[in-house]
Amino acid sequence: MQVIGHRGASAVAPQNTLAAFGAACRAGADAVELDVRRTADGALVVLHDARVDATTDGSGRVRALSAAQVGALDAGASFSPAFAGERVPFLADVLALLAAHDVGLLCELKGGWSPREVADVVAVLDGAGMAGRTLLQSFRRRTVRAAREAAPEIPRGLLVEVWTPGVLRACERLAVTSCNPSLRILQRRPGLPGDLHAAGFTATPWTLDDPADWTLAVDAGADGIITNDPGRLRTWLSAR
To answer: Which of these is catalytic: 1, 30, 48, 236?
Structure first.
């Protein structure tokens, strides 16, 4: 059972910051999940929302701001005064941290990406020595397709929020290795991990923070659990 920190250890530190990723590494996470977006000048930053308003002291769309503008934002004070001054990290900085701790990565590409844009991500992964420890994933099938074209050697995953019969066919066409469903899907379809295994895919549900849901995932045979509190999950698994 893989323990995967959702945006780092975002229960104890501001999401998608070096503080959160460092906390996940220290908590014994096998991997972290993060979100990548491009700035107006093409820099790769780690930030979930299309706008910076919710998690920083700034305002505006990430795509409309420069790397310097995004990098200057405070991404910690809104979580707790103790994290004031924590910055929105660049992807390369997070990769250096993960490589130093030998921790894997589920890298979500937010929105629509072209093969050329994905190639920029792959170049940073290669530079950090992290390509072999990374799963590229997205909700957007177009983006997963672009990842396949840009870097067929890097495993891919399809994130799924609503289950339909067409999802399995899409996974086959995209040649993904992992189909990662929401907690709600797992609750409604507890046999889904077994179905995905039979079709040749792994299954890592998101985002599970309650022991009852962890039990559901373990009993269903999930390959990993994406959680905001990897330290607590690691302790719970050890107790089992």
So the answer is: 48
Catalytic residue, candidates 3, 5, 6, 186: 6
Task: Tell me if the pTM is above 0.85.
Answer: yes
| Three-class DSSP category at 112 | coil
Q: How far apart are CA 213 and CA 141, in angstroms?
A: 27
d(CA 30, CA 4): 6
Distance between CA atoms of residues 45 and 35, nearest Å: 8
CA dist., res. 200 & res. 203, Å (int):
10
Nearest to 223 by CA among 183, 162, 176, 179: 179
- For 21-71, what is the HEC assignment? HHHHHHCCCCEEEEEEEECCCCCEEECCCCECCCCCCCCCEHHHCCHHHHH
Please list the helix, strand and coil fractions of the chain in percent, rounded to the nearest 5, in that order: 40, 20, 40
User: Would you call 197 a catalytic residue per the annotation?
Assistant: no
DSSP reduced 3-state for 162: coil
What domains lie within the chain, and their CATH numbers?
2-239 (3.20.20.190)
pLDDT digits (tens, 9 = 90+) for 53-98: 999 999 999 999 999 999 999 999 999 999 999 999 999 999 999 9
Q: Are strands 44-46 and 31-38 parallel, antiparallel or unpaired?
A: antiparallel
Contact 193/1 with Cβ under 8 angstroms? no
Task: Tell me the torsion sign for CA atoms 47, 51, 56, 60.
Answer: positive
Distance of CA 226 to the CA centre of its chain: 9
